[in-house]
Amino acid sequence: MASALRLDPDRFFPPDKAVRDIARELFAHVEKLPIISPHGHTDPAWFATDAPFQDAASLFLWPDHYVLRMLYSQGIGFDRLGVTGGKPATKDRRAAWTLFAENYYLFRGTPSRAWLDHAFATVFGMEVRLERATADLYYDTIGEKLAKPEFRPRALFKRFNIEALATTEGATDLLAHHARIKSEWGGRVITTFRPDGVVNPEADGFAANVDLLGELTMENTATWKGYLKALQNRRTFFREHGGATATDHGHPTPFTADLTPRECQGLLDRALKGELAAGEAELFRGQMLTEMALMSCEDGMTMQIHPGSWRNHNPALQAAYGPDRGADIPMRVSYVDSLKALLDRVGNRSDLTIILFTLDESNYARELAPLAGHYPCLRLGPPWWFHDSPEGMMRFRRQTTETAGFYNTVGFNDDTRAFLSIPARHNLARRIDCAYLAELVATHRLDETEAVEVAMDLAYRLPKAAYKL
User: Fold this and answer.
1) Are both 106 and 238 inside the same structural domain?
2) How large is the average pLDDT for residues 386-404?
3) Strands 169-170 and 193-194, how do they pair?
4) Phi then psi dihedrals of residue 153, to 5 deg
5) Sheet of strand 302-305, all strands in order from the earlier edge strand to the far edge
6) Confidence band for 430, pLDDT divided at 50, 70 and 90
7) What does the pLDDT look like over 70-79, one tens digit per residue?
8) Is the domain of 68 the same as that of 170?
9) What is the pLDDT averaged over residues 409-433?
10) Same domain, 85 and 158
11) How far is residue 113's CA from residue 118's CA, in Å, rounded to a whole number?
């Protein structure tokens, strides 16, 4: 007999009854607040076309790198899961889903399990746990419901109580989907400006990308002045045509530089020719972080820096199946020295917001909290990627609050590709924040009325303010 799927109303709250009661009361104030999803990677085509999602495998299995990496770690090949690439893949979606169901036990104790169970129970009304015996029930039930109008992307957007959602597009994207969203639908879906492909000399097709940037803006991107003007032009385009309020930068490190225009021109010349010397690609990226910060001072866009991931660490997997298949690995990074050049230029400005993220948790108390607790332009982003988890969120609060407080953080953003995980992730983040605040109330470090205000700020007001929504 299949095991019941039940979401306990007190999940993730402290085991101590007195503290749990406080957490429950705090959560009641924030549980139903609108969702602000200011940074993520959902596909704008979903909301532009409002086409129905196809089936359980294409919705939950194939796009989720958290799921793929766990299954791959246990020797389950992507071809067996129906993932396309250099090797033949099964075309039987039900078979791929059944394989996933047989191995669903692998996700015990992981945030993926919490997100998936939340979606299964609250979106599709499943009452039994996913396992081999229930694989067909899940596949058929999800498929039948996805065919109904109330399960289309725009209807789910409304059902999830999403007030604003940001996608992420490259600097040369024409934003056609956003244009259609704006003309046909009232849901607030905006873009985020991600210039990595035209500011990272090690990006695939960098020179061609920069040429396209020049064509789109009618600027001479072979000159440093023209290159910067072209980037400013695209930022303006993203704001005017996609509603962008923020930029995003996925650099390997947070290193920044402050070079002379002549030095910058020399770097650009060598970058476009593919002749950068060792270390010069990092120098170029570092200069561009400073340039992007200076542009944000002019146009008011919030800047996000997401460093510290060794992308596609498994070259054989990338060659066979393409990038972003779960083989990205966190690296050690340093912020105090790396950000010095940028902060010397703009660190004291209170009209600039730079949100820092990390995959290196050792930086929380040592570097990030002290930096954000001093420089007016800096804010701390929420636990990201591998740390977007119950324990990761609690570690973040414990290590940063005493130095940076709550108001040098920006609440929660889900940073997800999986649309149906958005309400699950926000629900989890709100529960963990309430659990942490309940501890402060129980130990008489915070009054409960203050804790209610902080909980509402973290869930709703801070992300709205940080991202100017």
Assistant:
1) no
2) 98
3) parallel
4) -55, -45
5) 169-170, 193-194, 246-249, 302-305, 354-356, 378-380
6) very high
7) 999 999 999 9
8) no
9) 97
10) no
11) 8
Domain boundary among 111, 128, 148: 148
The pair of structure tokens assigned to 153 is 């992307």
What CATH number is associated with residue 124? 1.10.2020.10
Q: Are 169 and 189 in contact (CB under 8 A)?
A: no
Here the tokens at position 258 are 């402050």
Could you tell me how far CA 210 lies from the centroid of its own chain? 25
Range of the domain at 173: 17-51+152-466
Do 212 and 130 belong together in one domain?
no
Of the residues 123, 148, 173, the one at which a domain ends: 148
Residue 337 pLDDT greater than 80, yes or no: yes
Q: What is the pLDDT of residue 2?
A: 83
User: Could you tell me if residue 10 is inside a domain?
Assistant: no
| 37 & 161 share domain | yes
Same domain, 271 and 129: no
Q: Is residue 3 part of a domain?
A: no
Q: Look at residue 408 in the predicted model and tell me its pLDDT.
A: 98
CATH code of the domain in which 176 resides: 3.20.20.140
Spatial distance between the Cα atoms of 405 and 457, rounded to a whole number of angstroms:
13
Could you tell me if 213 and 138 lie in one domain?
no
* Residue 90: pLDDT band with limits 50, 70, 90: low
Residue 86 has pLDDT above 60, yes or no: no
161-208, pLDDT tens digit by residue?
Answer: 999 999 999 999 999 999 999 999 999 999 999 999 999 999 999 999
* 105 and 194 together in one domain: no
Q: Which of 80-94, 100-114, 254-268, 441-455 has the lowest mean pLDDT?
A: 80-94
**Residue type at 387?**
H
The count of structural domains within the chain is 2
Q: pLDDT tens digit string along 351-383? A: 999 999 999 999 999 999 999 999 999 999 999
